[in-house]
Amino acid sequence: NKLSVFDRKANSEMKCSFCICQSLLVFYVLLIAITYEEEIRPEIVQGWAEKLGTELWSLGDYVTRRVDVIKSFKEAKVESRDGGKVVNELVKDMENMMEHKVDAVRRIMDTAENAAIDSNPEEDIGDEFEYFNAKLLKPPGTYVPGVDPNGTRELELTPNSHFFDMPVNTAVSSVHVPTNVFDRAKEVIHAVKWSERLELTFRDNYKSDPSLSWQYFGSSTGFMRQFPATDWEMEPVDLFDCRTRSWYIEAATSPKDILILVDNSGSMMGQRKEIARHVVNSILDTLGNNDFVNIMTFVNDTKEIVECYRDMLVQANLENIRELKLGMKNMGPATFIANFSTALITAFDILEQYRESRMGAACNQAIMLVTDGVPYNFKEIF
Fold it and tell me: Is 80 exceeded by the pLDDT of residue 202?
């Protein structure tokens, strides 16, 4: 802050000054080159040196503003501060800030719950109902190639620095519907309609706390309402589904310990094996950092899909999920007959160990069996 006395002209002035200095040096070099055959008296060289030194000193003073810097530090003073008091003030400020954010989330939750309760699932909304579909928004008076003009809605979007200079409209919210969900399905339209009551809550939250960023509401039907409204980036392809995002999963489900048992017997070959791999990967995509998981294959015996995860559950973070998916990709060939009893007993033993020691998620536990068929219910194991 002490160096704030320097203005924006410093860079241009520095360049100009260095050009002057270079010109002086060139002049002296040329002068020496012209008179190199003549005898140069020491007092002349001394004069050159003094003049060059004076010029360089003046240049340094001018560019660095040495005098101004010295003056600015003459007013500096040392104050004693109580470290504990400073920390407490920071804690209080952080607490107040987080409380404002939590209050905003609570208001969204209360409004959504009340709107869902008041809605009528059997209401015939009709085809005339419209909403701001984020995929079909366009600026007024523009044409979107490849899209039915009757399927789009015009909305004025303005770049906003608070939202990373993205074009937004802070008066309304927009709705994103996943590609694999029909955006005019009855259950989707019904939920979109009652969620319109969130518009006022979104605006009030942003008005009371301008530091708020994006506000979301994710529905179990797949759509996501976001505020402020903005168009959705469709390139190269839209694969977004709010139901697979960590914030949705962690809010909708409790932490859990999961053991996935994958049948790798002789019947699980070809297409069945590929289906099993896809099922397991889909399960892994729904897990979050609060969950613990492991995958075991079983035939005559049971073994972990990742060797270093033996007899344990690992946190479902990105690194571990990546290793588990890689293990599924490199799963050994299907052989022999599956021993379900051994696999289930092993799974129950591991879950019991984690439950008694309060390790892992310390909440819900589940065993997922991926197979092409179970001979009977194995109730004696349970």
Answer: yes
